[in-house]
Specification:
By secondary structure, the protein is an all-alpha fold. It is about 75% helix and about 0% strand. The protein starts with 6 loop residues before the first helix and ends with a helix.
């Protein structure tokens, strides 16, 4: 998951990513221009043969550039080209690296947290953990969450989580997902209309098998009673 499901949060993330890309492209262009200009200064003979003033610069700048080219003429060409290349790379790496150092960890942290929250919201135990994470927020954030739930207080939220109240757990989990820009209805699975079939424990299956065997041994009315017992073992609630 790269972007939030909340439109405002997603727009903010897209704008930030676009700004970083634009910043990177800007400094890449600046580095290339600086490298080519420095290479021109590192070739003083070619510059001296070009008697016409350099375009897009004034007379003083043109004179200063020619003086620099004359000073570079006495240096080793390999050293000059190496220095020019290192300077161009530094011109790109330093500003881009500063921005990436502040932006990239935050984006990666959100991607990791959003993916983990989405996986947790897919199960009941995971939603309970999200609800606990919401309760462990600073007190003023818990108070804001309680104010958005009808007839709820921070204390009632803690009581509902401790006693496993489904509505309280879902409300807390939804608040935690909203902080990450996720939609509770989109990341949580919807139960089918008929409900999920409950698995039969292994112990209940063994008891049912013993009851059927006893019914076969007794025969007749005992079998009817054993069938009822079997039904009660397999589905004690129904």
């Amino acid at each position: 998951m790269w972007y939030a499901q909340n439109p405002a949060r997603r727009t903010h993330q897209l704008a930030g990513d676009a700004g970083v890309l634009l910043w990177t492209a800007l400094w890449a262009t600046a580095a290339v221009v600086a490298y080519r200009l420095a290479c021109l200064l590192a070739l003083p003979r070619a510059l001296q043969q070009h008697n016409a003033p350099l375009p897009l610069v004034g007379g003083r700048v043109d004179t200063a550039l020619r003086r620099i080219a004359g000073a570079v003429d006495a240096m080793d060409p390999v050293t000059v080209r190496t220095a020019v290349a290192v300077g161009a790379v530094a011109l790109f790496v330093v500003p881009v690296g500063l921005v990436l150092g502040a932006w990239l960890p935050r984006r990666l942290r959100w991607i990791r947290q959003a993916g983990a929250a989405r996986d947790l919201a897919a199960s009941d135990d995971g939603r309970e953990l999200l609800a606990l994470r919401s309760l462990l927020r600073p007190l003023h954030e818990v108070a804001v969450t309680a104010s958005e739930i009808p007839d709820a207080t921070p204390g009632s939220l803690a009581w509902g989580w401790r006693h496993g109240d489904p509505e309280t757990l879902d409300a807390l989990a939804e608040a935690e997902l909203e902080r990450l820009g996720l939609d509770f209805d989109l990341v949580t699975p919807q139960a089918p209309p008929g409900g999920l079939a409950r698995p039969v424990p292994a112990q209940a299956q063994a008891q049912a098998t013993e009851a059927v065997a006893a019914a076969e041994a007794v025969g007749g009315s005992g079998a009817v009673g054993a069938v009822g017992a079997t039904d009660s073992v397999i589905d004690p609630i129904g």
